Amino acid sequence: MRHLAILLIPLLAAAAPPAANPDAKLKRIIAPVSAAEMRRTVDTLVSFGTRHTLSSQTDPKRGIGAAVRWAEARMKGFGLATLQTCDTVTGRRVPTPTRVCNAVAIQRGTERPNDVVIIQGHIDSRVTDVMNFTSDAPGANDDGSGTAAVIEAARVLSKHKFPGTIVYAALSGEEQGLLGGKILADHAKAQGWNVIAVLNNDIIGNSCSSDGMCDDKHVRVLSEGPRSQGQGDLAAATHSLGGENDAPSRNISRYLDSLADRLGIGLDVTQIWRTDRFGRGGDHIPFLEAGFPAARLSVALENYNWQHQDLRTEKGIKYGDLVENMDFPYLAKVTKLNVAALASIASAPPPPEPTVEGAVSTDTTVTWDCCQQNAVAWNLYWRRTDANQWQEKKRIDAEAGVVQLPADPQMPAAMGRVIGRAILKGIRVDDWVFGVSSVSADGFESPVASAVPGGAFKPFVAAPKPAN
Ligand SMILES: [Zn+2]
Hints:
By secondary structure, the protein is of the alpha+beta class. The protein has eleven helices and 18 strands. Strands 1-2-4-3-5-8-6-7 form an eight-stranded mixed sheet, with helices on both faces. Strand 1 and strand 2 form a beta hairpin. Helix 3 packs across helix 5, helix 3 packs across helix 10 and helix 5 packs across helix 10. The N terminus is likely disordered. Zinc ion (ZN) binds next to loops.
């Protein structure tokens, strides 16, 4: 950000240090999340018979069309602006051109409408044969649970205002090849949204597996390692400087983990350091491919008898994705974590883009682009290279951390570049990973962006190759 020094420095210096307690505010915001309300939502979704992407789009009571229209109307009923994002698709699991539509609601930010955080689940359902669009496919948990989380988040958060924008999306076409996720990711790109995080909720409403194991105290958060988008250009730098555990999506995972610890809702995050379950996929992947940070939330223990199954009883075992298999108090806890993360990210300035220097030095210098709108401070974090969570933290207030670098010594200082900078004495750059988050006046904090190749929350853009 050049040529803005004169404007920014007085603005930042005027900001007061926060006395607010953001976690107490988040706890108040999430309190109304209701298991009973979500059960009603899932019951309604199941009542459409099947929500298969190839099922009827016009029948008023049965099929994907009725379900998507209902989800949109429900969110509109909360006073939110809604739309359907659609595309006509053919593919391996879509034999003839088919209109695929997502129900989307947008809660526009009051101060930074272009900074967007997304909660999504998929509204389509399936049975054993992925092409069977006529049999009943209740999809209560897969993914009525995620869709119910989207609608419940909209219900609860629409009563508040946030500086950043929250997008609520019930996606179609997931089971036919992540189609709705692609449509929304394309929409985000076309709109120029600065997507800070996508929380993809898929299978979040059961707590017992088919082997009798139960766990209602954990939720898995799956995140990619090295960022996939731009990896061809990033590979050499990542190989040399690290970053395999520090893509922005992984820092979303760390953010959710830390938030769950602080909220006291009886739910811990198990971070799973891979893009999705082994050999499987979800609607966060099209966002990752577009360069947007995204993570998947899913139950601690899946029950494979209850997903992607024809409704039947065989050798005494009841198969099918039915409401009776769900744990709604557990679903409410996972939803509370989502709602807290949405409120927190939409209240915080976007994360900066830090870089780190200090080779052959006893000190480390971390610098970052500044100054994110409404950031009054940054938190500088560092951790050992083999630690899964940030270990050390230092708050850098704007007055102390913002420096002006003359881009050119001949140039007046005020025409130079304004950056954030912190020098850590006696900390060796070799042995740690560093990251920076932005903090608002009322104490809300963005996810941490790591100072590694590909760590920025924006899509990676390769430097132009020098002409020869
Ligand atoms: Zn699913």
